[in-house]
Amino acid sequence: MKIVVADDDPQMLGALRIILGAHGYEVKLARTGKEALDAVIAEHPELVVLDLGMPQLNGLEVIGAIRGWSSVPIVIVSGRTDSADKVSALDAGADDYVTKPFAADELLARIRALTRRTAGTADEPIVRFANVTIDLAAKVATVRDEGVDTVVRLTPTEWQILELLLRNPRKLVTQRTLLTEIRGPNHVGDTGYLRLYIGQLRKKLEPDPGRPRYFLTEVGMGYRYVPEAD
Q1: pLDDT tens track for 93-121
Q2: Pairing between strand 222-225 and 172-174?
């Protein structure tokens, strides 16, 4: 399995190369954001390990560039511990965030979890409604307009919400369920946060976001995906 590792600290690069190499991973190193992006394009890795503070292109810029065309799992390994940095990275398209200093076993466990999740998606369904196609395996959403398919960029949080709704057609998915899944059990009261993301999904996927047809609100309770057949 091939991993691109990007960090501007030579000691960290060396440590990650030894840790990952000792566990059978093929490691490609990058010292700048541009080198990281070039390596992902050239090598087509199965996973990317990425620092946030790099020259030329920072980590968020690299994530954005990669997510324009690839769903490769991205793990951020950064010394930034502020929750705002973590949220920014995850919303930009990162799949996980590990804070430096870290235990090697923890990083390896995160990598195994992500690669298992990726490997297990081959039989995921494709969902279609209106002019929208959602490929849950590839995590690609497209909208067709006048015979042309355009990829719709969804954040990881939007994908989490969308998948929960699509996997439960016609069923009420409660606010508590959605918030527990995307933010954890300590944030079940953040209903305004949830409304914001539902609104964004409607803008991106509903033919008429002001009059939603497929992603319906059950006031005070939660949300429901209503398939085309209904």
Answers
A1: 898 999 998 899 989 998 988 877 665 44
A2: antiparallel
